[in-house]
């Protein structure tokens, strides 16, 4: 359904160019949930915004249903009806002066959909706010955190999209509510055939909800594959370090330093300055000097960009 091909996004930064996204291939199939994971600052949100058409790629292209994304007003508007965004902070994304009805009705009004009240009621009901009429005249401050996130999801569902891009959809919620929102996303996938890209730093969330996982570091996908393959047998040292923070992990891997400045990408493997294997003296020459290829988009099998991984790196 949605595919990024060799997508790069650069921003001007103090006279230099910061490569926030640097040659990413990513595909999302119909009815599929893909988790995009990585630490803060790795480029996840910039990639999500680019997939939505909110940022234009410096190079590469985004395609929807096999057609390159057009940035003209009418075509972009039609595309955004099919692909909707769910933001991290529901209190920040809802207008405190708008009622729940007004918030959910905004999208249908922009797109000129008929039967507005019926559309709003149906969207709220699908998002788990029942009976929907009970919530029409409420304001965001009158709702719990979980209810506010359901309103945000209802606003996206009001346009009957085929794909949701959810940026840290449960990060601001209590643990007791997180499971409810994740269950809601899975139910929407089963009932509506809705696909989703879930942007998160939480590998536990990815394990519970995703069909496939793509691990991002410093603007690139460094490992991708089915959730079970990636999270039970990680090949990239970065993925191994991310998984080591989970309570059931037998060994804690502490990465040294911070992610490098995106205006000064390291030569060779971009992870080598922090890699625990390089620090132990394994394969240091290749990791310092030999560039790694961009991983191709894949819906089957695993791919990893690492000189020291046990599975072959794609060439």
From TrEMBL:
The keyword Nucleotide-binding applies. InterPro entries: AAA+_ATPase, ABC_transp_ATP-bind, ABC_transporter-like_ATP-bd, ABC_transporter-like_CS, Oligopep_ABC_C, P-loop_NTPase. SMART domains: AAA. GO terms for biological process: peptide transport; transmembrane transport. Transmembrane segments: none annotated. It comes from the Bacteria. Residues 2-243 form the ABC transporter domain. GO terms for molecular function: ATP binding; ATP hydrolysis activity. Keywords: ATP-binding, Nucleotide-binding, Transport. Belongs to the ABC transporter superfamily. This is ABC transporter ATP-binding protein. It comes from Kribbella turkmenica.
